[in-house]
Design brief:
CATH topology of the largest domain: Cytochrome Bc1 Complex, Chain D, domain 2
Largest sheet: 2 strands, antiparallel
Number of strands: 2
CATH architecture of the largest domain: Orthogonal Bundle
Helix content: 55-70%
Distance between the termini: 70 Å
CATH class of the largest domain: Mainly Alpha
Oligomer: single chain
Order of helices and strands: HHHHEEHH
Number of helices: 6
Strand content: under 5%
Length: 139
């Protein structure tokens, strides 16, 4: 009887681990910019605004830098990091098909860059606004 209850407990534990792994799998997969925009918009609970995104991207917010300090005012070409000089690929997805295809990478760079520009992390709405503006830039 003890082996049977242990076996059932083990099965439940393995099932729980399996469900947890399955739930995490989509986050590890590649996404499209449109999918990431939809996720940010849903988190924000409001439609994204390309005009607000462009303002956030090009304006300084009381600090030394704006997003455009490194990425360019119209980020359709490679930019250059303001302090290191390192080349940065075009931000607009139409000009760089690798942009906004990895949610973890997207979050990492939003977190770092928002802290540099805004001295805080961006909200989901701000991320949606910036991404929506970048997606309007076409060749």
């Amino acid at each position: 009887m003890n082996l049977i209850s242990l076996s059932a407990a083990s099965i439940r534990a393995l099932a729980a681990v399996g469900l947890a792994c399955a739930a995490l799998a989509p986050a590890a997969q590649a996404a499209t910019p449109a999918e990431q925009l939809a996720a940010y918009t849903a988190q924000a609970g409001a439609p994204a605004s390309p005009a607000r995104g462009q303002q956030l991207f090009t304006n300084k917010h009381g600090g030394e830098w704006s997003c455009s300090s490194c990425h360019g005012a119209v980020p359709t070409q490679a930019g250059k990091h303001a302090s290191t000089g390192k080349t940065i690929g075009a931000m607009a997805p139409a000009f760089n098909p690798e942009r906004f295809t990895d949610p973890a990478k997207t979050e990492k760079w939003f977190r770092r860059n928002c802290k540099d520009v805004l001295s805080r992390e961006c909200t989901a709405g701000e991320k949606a606004d910036v991404l929506s503006w970048l997606m309007t830039l076409k060749p």
